[in-house]
Amino acid sequence: MTEASSSDTADEVETADVADDGTPERSPRTSRGRLGEWLILALAVVLAISGVVAGWLAWNDDTIEQAQTRDAVLVEARQHIETMNTLDYREVDEGLAAWADVTTGTLHDQLVGVSDEEKQLLAEQQMISTGKVVDAAVTDFDASSATVIAAVEVTVEDDADPDAEPTVKRNRFSAELLRVEGEWKLENLQQVAVNLS
């Protein structure tokens, strides 16, 4: 019987290594080893993706900051150009003060230096002009200066002739702006000739 017992034991050992469907079962040690390999591989992939994402975000920070600066320049330039094309003869002092508020440098100095005689002439013309920027673009900028081009419609009402219809003038401007104490201000505003050919 000893031979039968040892033969039965050998059969049991063989059947322990074979699954019911006939495929060999893996030992727990082999499965754990492969699980560890997969975990290391997954960790390496996650670290690689994290590195790529971090690099992209760092590169994009500059791009986002530039876009925000460009947007701020455009918003303020549009408002300032509209202000500079708006004046009511009944409120000349207020209009000139608004012009001075949106300008800097030589342009600002010229506006602050408008004489009483010049103010009187503006009042006597009895004109009300209202500027509206219909299109604008930033053509150049950095952290402290910018250049903007703008298409402007200026509606002019002539109070000296109450029967006259308001007229609309379309002009193009080139504006140079400087950043002064966190705000963009017009340093120069020039009308640009329109080439009709």
Automatic annotation (TrEMBL):
<feature type="compositionally biased region" description="Acidic residues">
    <location>
        <begin position="9"/>
        <end position="22"/>
    </location>
</feature>
<dbReference type="GO" id="GO:0016020">
    <property type="term" value="C:membrane"/>
</dbReference>
<feature type="region of interest" description="Disordered">
    <location>
        <begin position="1"/>
        <end position="31"/>
    </location>
</feature>
<protein>
    <recommendedName>
        <fullName>Mce-associated membrane protein</fullName>
    </recommendedName>
</protein>
<keyword id="KW-0472">Membrane</keyword>
<feature type="transmembrane region" description="Helical">
    <location>
        <begin position="38"/>
        <end position="59"/>
    </location>
</feature>
<keyword id="KW-1133">Transmembrane helix</keyword>
<keyword id="KW-0812">Transmembrane</keyword>
